[in-house]
Write a structure and sequence with these properties.
Blueprint (H helix, E strand, L loop, with lengths): L8 E4 L6 E5 L5 H5 L2 E2 L16 E8 L5 E7 L7 H23 L12 H18 L3
Parallel strand pairs: 2-5
Antiparallel strand pairs: 1-2, 3-4, 4-5
């Protein structure tokens, strides 16, 4: 019996007015288009999500038109694939948090006493990405 690769696309509700969705490496544009579309109504193309180890795209959820930041993971490479995948997750989490702050028109505060909201949100995003990418 062949071992079929499972597609996982998970949506996480955020404390901010933009949701987070994470798709594993087996999700194709066809899979994503069942749930999401570009803001202008266009479908997502494979060429827009397949050219790197991971990407973050701003999409709209088809079911309710909610704004979503979609993290699409693609592959890990090198000798330590687990480490490479985790570094990709952290990298994409950085894009998500920066895009979120831009979306809510807020500034990132680097003051030592006010960094916790940023760091807790970054931790939550990374955990969501890791949760989806760890599914078998």
């Amino acid at each position: 019996m062949k071992n079929k690769k499972k597609v996982y696309i998970d949506t996480y509700e955020s404390i901010y007015p933009i949701r987070l969705a994470v798709a594993n490496e087996y999700a194709t544009a066809k899979d994503l288009n069942k749930y999401f579309r570009w803001g202008d109504g266009e479908d997502i193309l494979d060429t827009e999500i397949d050219d790197c180890k991971g990407c973050v795209i701003k999409v709209v959820r088809r079911s309710d038109n909610a704004k979503v930041l979609l993290v699409k993971l693609n592959y890990a490479e090198g000798k330590n694939k687990k480490l490479d995948a985790m570094l990709t997750a952290v990298h994409e989490a950085g894009h998500v948090i920066l895009t979120t702050y831009n979306h809510i028109e807020d500034k990132i505060c680097s003051d030592d006493t006010k960094q916790e909201p940023f760091c807790y949100y970054l931790e939550w995003i990374t955990k969501c990405i890791y949760t989806t990418m760890s599914k078998k």
